[in-house]
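quick q for whoever's on today - can somebody do inverse folding on this one?? i tried earlier but teh output was garbage lol. tokens:
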């Protein structure tokens, strides 16, 4: 039995502790916003937050999430009003959109540690892959989200 809180809901699941967290999120809980990309923690499509840290859920065993708090894209902001989500829409970031939930979750964690990032910070710290190559729009959206949060007097 594995127990954790996901998107504010306590869950107790009878799953093998070695199962990747990604498959528990998608197959057991039906939260399909978190995507499978590579399965080896390289692309970042599966990024979620575990105790506030961006984690690639395809490589984290669910047993290692026992007792922790997990946030997926569905739990970030049910109405899409999170500053990063607002910035993503304003900058028209998605092209195919497949990687975007992971990109957004990585950006939120990044901005929590770098509230006023430089382009170099973004390029160095955010390693999620976008096959469509929307990196310039991702960078612009991260700067916009930082500005939105600053104007609101809070952290993104």
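ok took a stab at it. sequence:
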């Amino acid at each position: 039995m594995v127990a954790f809180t996901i998107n504010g809901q306590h869950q107790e699941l009878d799953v093998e502790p070695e199962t990747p967290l990604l498959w528990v999120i998608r197959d057991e809980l039906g939260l399909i916003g978190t995507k499978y990309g590579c399965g080896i923690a390289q692309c970042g499509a599966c990024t979620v937050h575990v105790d506030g840290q961006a984690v690639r859920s395809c490589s984290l065993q669910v047993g290692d999430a026992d007792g922790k708090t997990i946030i997926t894209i569905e739990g970030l902001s049910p109405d899409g009003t999170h500053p990063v989500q607002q910035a993503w829409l304003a900058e028209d970031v998605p092209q195919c959109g497949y990687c975007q939930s992971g990109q957004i979750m990585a950006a939120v964690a990044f901005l929590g540690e770098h509230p006023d990032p430089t382009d170099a910070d973004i390029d160095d710290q955010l390693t999620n892959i976008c096959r469509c190559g929307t990196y310039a729009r991702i960078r612009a959206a991260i700067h916009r989200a930082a500005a939105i949060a600053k104007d609101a007097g809070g952290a993104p």
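fwiw Helices lie at 21-28, 73-76, 83-90, 100-113, 119-125, 135-152. also DSSP finds six helices and five strands in the chain. so keep that in mind when u check it
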